[in-house]
Write a structure and sequence with these properties.
25% helix; EC 2.7.7.87; 9-stranded mixed β-sheet; 9 strands; 181 residues; tRNA binding; DHBP synthase; ATP-binding; Sua5-like_dom; globular
């Protein structure tokens, strides 16, 4: 079990890709400001950025910088985050176009020691998408991640199997609310 995040921080800072545990599944992380790293994630997952935008993992206090919260969205952020939810919210100009090329961005706030330490020390959001190939089940352990992905990342944080009901629930929120997954 690798709980030392220094290698992963170094990888993120140099435009690399990491595998890290979320509260639901293992994810792929990269600096959201590195277009090259984000494109590498899309390539690894065998999909294009136009096909599916990538969500971001951030600290709760950073949400106003990256999203334009409606009254309903602000209420739901308070009620649901941190938690096993991806909220799709209206984005601000601070979200790079290669993350979300439309008006919305998916955000996650996760309250785990590893994620909190990673974000505190990196001081910027990272990508959050499951470490699986398109159409495959999201991995709850490192052993479930395809070799093609394992062999293409720069660092892995392995905290053992994740006990969860599956991937996050995705909810799009503006003036109304729509469950997407």
């Amino acid at each position: 079990m690798n709980l030392d995040i220094s290698e992963s921080l170094s990888s993120l800072k140099s435009g690399g890709i990491i595998i890290y545990p979320t509260d639901t599944v293992y994810g792929l992380g990269a600096d959201i400001h590195s277009e090259t790293a984000v494109e590498k994630i899309h390539t690894l997952k065998e999909r294009s950025s136009k096909e599916k935008p990538i969500s971001i993992l951030l600290k709760k206090e950073w949400i106003p910088d990256y999203t334009d919260l409606s009254e309903l969205a602000e209420k739901r952020v308070e009620e649901l985050l941190p938690g096993p939810y991806t909220l799709v919210l209206k984005k601000t100009d601070k979200v790079p176009v290669w993350i979300a090329n439309q008006d919305y961005v998916g955000i996650r706030v996760i309250d785990t020691i590893v994620v909190n330490e990673l974000l505190d020390k990196f001081s910027s959001p990272i990508t959050t998408t499951s470490a699986n190939l398109r159409g495959a089940p999201p991995p709850k352990s490192i052993e479930e991640i395809p070799d093609a992905i394992i062999n293409s990342v720069d660092s892995i944080i392995d905290t053992g199997p994740i006990i969860s009901k599956g991937p996050s629930t995705v909810i799009k929120i503006n003036e109304k609310e729509e469950v997407l997954r």
